[in-house]
């Protein structure tokens, strides 16, 4: 798994001419980092007597963040596999009309899969902004900036993932599908920007 690599190895692989990991995997990584920071704020709050009243809520926040981290790290590989499927489809033979038809169908299927993985990442990252907000609002004030960074990383995960949706969407022929997904993209972008503003306005240093 990409998530099992050393950070330096992951960065080196990303920096190389290899097609994966790319922007989609990095978007998912941003989501995982956002949730890790949220969990850290909660962990620094749980056993602090000053915040005894929210200890239970912070423990639940840690559990939620942990589940999100698992999801995002899985999507790092899912994105790479989806891209590989598209590339394999493009390499299919196209000597006959039948081969061209099969190849075209495989490409279109692959493109939809490659669009849907980052779309899921964006949707989940929007949820991650909700738990980051709780960390900012109720978590240890000494770590409030970590909660703010969590919110910003979640926002970055959303915007990054959506660009990866769009680049695949551009080659999909199904007009109804394109329209439906594009509408969802615009909605997610607007909500991400609004949520980030709302959360950062609550940061007190």
Explain what you see.
The structure is a single chain. The model has no long low-confidence stretch (mean pLDDT 97). The radius of gyration is 20 Å and the shape is elongated. The chain has 205 residues and is mainly α. It starts with 6 loop residues before the first helix and ends in a 5-residue tail after the last helix. The chain contains six helices and no strands. It has a single domain (22-200), classed as Four Helix Bundle (Hemerythrin (Met), subunit A).
Decide which structural class fits the backbone. Answer: mainly alpha
Largest sheet: none
Q: How many strand segments?
A: 0
CATH class: Mainly Alpha
- Domain count: 1
Number of helices: 6
- In percent, how much strand structure appears in the residues? under 5%
CATH superfamily: Formiminotetrahydrofolate cyclodeaminase monomer, up-and-down helical bundle
Instruction: Give the proportion of residues in helices.
Output: over 70%
Q: How does CATH name the architecture?
A: Up-down Bundle
- Topology order in helix (H) and strand (E) letters: HHHHHH
Rg, rounded, reads: 20 Å
Give the N-terminus to C-terminus distance in angstroms: 38 Å
Outline, from the CA principal axes? elongated
Please state the average pLDDT score. 97
Q: In the CATH scheme, what's the topology name?
A: Four Helix Bundle (Hemerythrin (Met), subunit A)
Low-confidence stretches: none
Brief overview, please?
The chain is mainly alpha-helical.
Keywords, separated by commas or semicolons:
205 residues; mainly alpha; Four Helix Bundle (Hemerythrin (Met), subunit A)
